[in-house]
Amino acid sequence: MAVSFKVNRPITIDQFTRLLESSTLGERRPIHDRECMEGMISNSNLIVSAWDGALLVGIARSVTDFHYACYLSDLAVHKSYQKSGIGKRLQSLTQEQLGPLCKLILIAAPAANSYYGQIGYTHNDRCWVLEPGVTIGN
């Protein structure tokens, strides 16, 4: 397995969707909504990807200002490539693209919740989520 890593290499919607389907992340993403998937890729301003030849085997998809905050919205590794260090490398390469004061922020998938503390993240219980269709009240 000779995996190469790329920063902001173009990724097709089909490649992205297939990767999410082949990882546990596909269960929590709108993989059947092509327009949404297109928006997710085209509006991300930092994408670090892992490739085995022409096969996309990992992705760290982020939205960031590069100076203060980077929201790592998708971290996915193909099931056949998990536990080989690809996820850690994707996060490290993402971090390398950011300024020295920029924080990497993510919402952990339930099965991965304990993983992040083991690799250096600190837990923050102050996150709030406003679901689609919910109107902000008084």
Automatic annotation (TrEMBL):
Pfam families in alphabetical order: Acetyltransf_10 (PF13673)
SUPFAM superfamilies documented for this protein: Acyl-CoA N-acyltransferases (Nat)
CDD domains associated with the record: NAT_SF
N-acetyltransferase domain boundaries: 3-137
Keywords assigned: Transferase
A GO MF term: acyltransferase activity, transferring groups other than amino-acyl groups
Gene3D superfamilies for the chain: 3.40.630.30
PANTHER family reported for this sequence: FAMILY N-ACETYLTRANSFERASE, PUTATIVE (AFU_ORTHOLOGUE AFUA_6G03350)-RELATED
Protein name: Acetyltransferase (GNAT) domain-containing protein
